[in-house]
Design brief:
By secondary structure, this protein is α/β, with parallel strands linked by helices. The chain folds into 2 domains: 4-178 and 362-379, 3-Layer(aba) Sandwich (Rossmann fold), CATH 3.40.50.2000; 189-360, 3-Layer(aba) Sandwich (Rossmann fold). 44% of the residues lie in helices and 17% in strands. The chain has 15 helices and 13 strands. A 7-stranded parallel β-sheet has the order 3-2-1-4-5-6-7, with helices on both faces. The chain has a 6-stranded parallel β-sheet with strand order 10-9-8-11-12-13, with helices on both faces. Helix 8 crosses helix 11. The mean pLDDT is 95.
């Protein structure tokens, strides 16, 4: 009989983005019978089903908090898990983490694994933060083991006494999906110039790329301040990602309107945007793991980032970039100005790709995750 593995996430888009190609690897490298439980749009669910990974169960999870809808989702999930027995159940993303831990405990699933990939409440304070900490503490307590996507994330959870140390585990050096080193690679100068012309970026400018969700939480307000201080420099920004709040959109709109940058909607060819750049600017206030920083490193592009949870693991100081104190825009601006005039700037980070490959090569990481699942299936 095939061992049965179940993954629970809030939205199908998370399976299609975070788990791109990894689930195919698990399917093709093991005899697991895979079940995926989530909510999401019809479009994303159709994309997920077209991947032919196994059974896809739509329980209409909603990302926004709603006591009534969340209670309904918990009942539906518990009912489903009551009639289906799995050797191992893995639940991740905030809503699914809570509902999955409760439902799989109530139905006495053999092996329950929580997977913490980040904390939206990282920079909250007071009662609001303690409430979210309590929910994580409950989910972790109901689980046999808790995976974390980075060392800094597990360390902060341990420091807050959210779980026992013997339950916590980081696979290899962290990261959720690693890097595809064949796609994410440096390009020669002529190829870089061709890409810049393709994206309508000045060939002779110092190009800074900003990759990911465009919102205040990703440091867009800080990037706006920095861009104002660099107006006199020959700098061009490239923004790629989806708008998530008015602050981020207003910053990008202003820079683009002034002719100092371009905006590119989120698309699968993020590597081309990184390859265009001289610098990757990553001023997120919090992450689970800053995967885009290791993607930039694999392309030979250094990252300037804040030294915060999840990001500190993905930038190696003086090897793949520089880390700065949170919201220290003055130091970041000064470092960028120095980089513009430093003819040896790129050479300073010549070991970035080798570091990224050694620590985050995709298929090695996928195999480590698969080994973990197989090991815990045998323990079930």
């Amino acid at each position: 009989m095939k061992p049965k593995i179940c993954f629970i996430m809030t939205d199908a888009v998370s399976f299609n983005v975070l788990y791109r190609n990894q689930l195919e690897y698990i399917r093709d490298s093991s005899n697991f019978e895979i079940t995926l439980i989530c909510g999401g749009s019809r479009e994303q669910l159709d994309i997920l089903r077209a991947r032919n990974l196994g059974e896809v169960v739509d329980l209409n999870f909603q990302r926004k908090p709603s006591v009534l809808q969340d209670a309904k989702s918990l009942v539906l999930l518990t009912r489903y898990l009551f009639i289906r027995r799995f050797d191992i159940v893995i639940y991740l993303t905030p809503k699914a983490l809570l509902l999955g831990s409760i439902a799989s405990t109530l139905t006495m699933q053999k092996r329950r694994v929580a997977f913490s990939v980040g904390r939206a409440y990282e920079n909250f304070s007071g009662l609001k933060k303690r409430a979210f900490q309590g929910l994580d503490q409950l989910s972790f307590g109901l689980s046999h083991e808790v995976l974390f996507v980075s060392d800094s994330l597990v360390n902060v959870c341990l420091s807050e006494n959210l779980l026992k140390e013997n339950k916590a585990r980081v696979i290899d050096n962290g990261s959720f999906n690693g890097i595809d080193i064949d796609v994410l690679r440096p390009v020669e100068q002529m190829a870089k110039q061709k890409l810049r012309r393709q994206y309508r970026v000045p060939v002779d400018a110092f190009v800074i790329c900003v990759v990911g969700r465009i919102c205040e939480d990703k440091g867009l307000k800080d990037i706006g301040e920095i861009s104002e201080s660099l107006k006199s420099e020959n700098i061009h920004f490239m923004f790629i990602g989806d708008f998530e709040d008015d602050i981020g959109k207003s910053v990008v709109d202003r820079i683009v309107k002034e002719g100092r940058g371009v905006y590119i909607p989120a698309n699968p060819k993020v590597e081309e945007v990184i390859q265009c750049a001289d610098l990757h600017l990553f001023l997120s206030y919090r992450e689970g793991f800053g995967n885009v920083a290791i993607e930039a490193a694999s392309c030979g592009v250094p990252t300037f980032a804040y030294d915060v949870v999840g990001v500190k693991d993905s930038v190696k100081q003086d090897i793949s970039g520089q880390k700065f104190q949170l919201k220290d825009t003055v130091s970041v601006t000064k470092a960028i100005k120095q980089a513009i005039t430093d003819t040896s700037f790129k050479d300073k980070y010549s070991e970035a790709r080798a570091w990224a490959i050694q620590n985050f090569e995709q298929k090695e990481l996928w195999q480590s995750y698969l080994d973990f699942y197989l090991h815990h299936t045998n323990k079930a």
